[in-house]
Amino acid sequence: MSNKKQALDARARGIYVVSPSSAVADAKVLVRGVKRLEKMGFKVALDRDTLAREQRFAGSDQSRLAGLHRAAKQSLPIVMASRGGYGITRLLPHIDWHLMAQANKRFVGQSDFTAFNLALLAKTGLVSYAGPTVCYDFGAPKPEILTTEIFGEVMRGELEILSFESDDSDAVDCRGVLWGGNLAMITALIGTPFMPKIKKGILFIEDVGEHPYRIERMLLQLAQSGILSKQKALLLGGFTDYRLAEHDRGYDLQSAIRFIKQSVGIPVITGLPFGHTPMKATLPVGAKVGVATEDGLAHIVFDEHRD
């Protein structure tokens, strides 16, 4: 094995688990997730407050903030959220962003963790990862094999291209900074110092439990605030667990997407395997990528193969 390969393997081997958002509902699920990660070859350590609880949160704001700071100071290279939920936006003004910048960690999470991903990018310019969490993904009764495999490949710097089915996408071939995550969290950061100012970027979005009219409304907020028009493409991930009403009268998610495509004026790509779904890619937030569509497929080409 080459020295470079050994260095990559060492960099990918350790995961420190924190709970910066909602409380872990079932410790058994967390334990199951840790065991699965260990079976994959990762050394896993839990922050001392991973299972803390105060109201709906994983401990007080002070303890969750301290957990993030401990994560930045400890020796393991990957920091992964135990779960999403809500709570990180409370912490953003108090996070030591200089410490985060100096930590040289690979921060990984989704949902509420979008707020951290984007704030880190806005405050430091550093890449982090929208990807699986310990409980939802690795702690699932039967984890999606592609989710776990892609996570490992990305952490080892092996993934060069991600291809997925995208039958009704606009034609596009462009390059830009990949950024985004949970749509509700993105719109919550508009007008704050934690919203990255990305021009000619590639924005990806997903959400859960949001009716299509709310998805449309949030996208219109991004459009009317001038953010969408500055992007080269919009990638649509999963929008799950919503319920249509009788008075929608045919208005559904596809209706909302059609309206946005007509209104925004940038290419829209569907089918991104990311969201509150068993299958999710691990995506580098803040990295430069290429995006192209052809013959019912879309491709994300990562900046370079790290070897």
UniProtKB/TrEMBL annotation:
GO molecular function, one term: serine-type peptidase activity
Coiled-coil annotated spans: none
Residues the record marks as active site: 111, 206, 276
Lineage: superkingdom: Bacteria
Name of the molecule in the record: LD-carboxypeptidase
Protein source organism: Zwartia hollandica
A Pfam family this chain is assigned to: Peptidase_S66C
Occurrences of domain LD-carboxypeptidase C-terminal (ranges): 175-289
Keywords: Carboxypeptidase, Hydrolase, Protease, Serine protease
Family: Belongs to the peptidase S66 family.
GO biological process: proteolysis
Domain LD-carboxypeptidase N-terminal intervals: 15-131
Keyword Electron transport listed: no
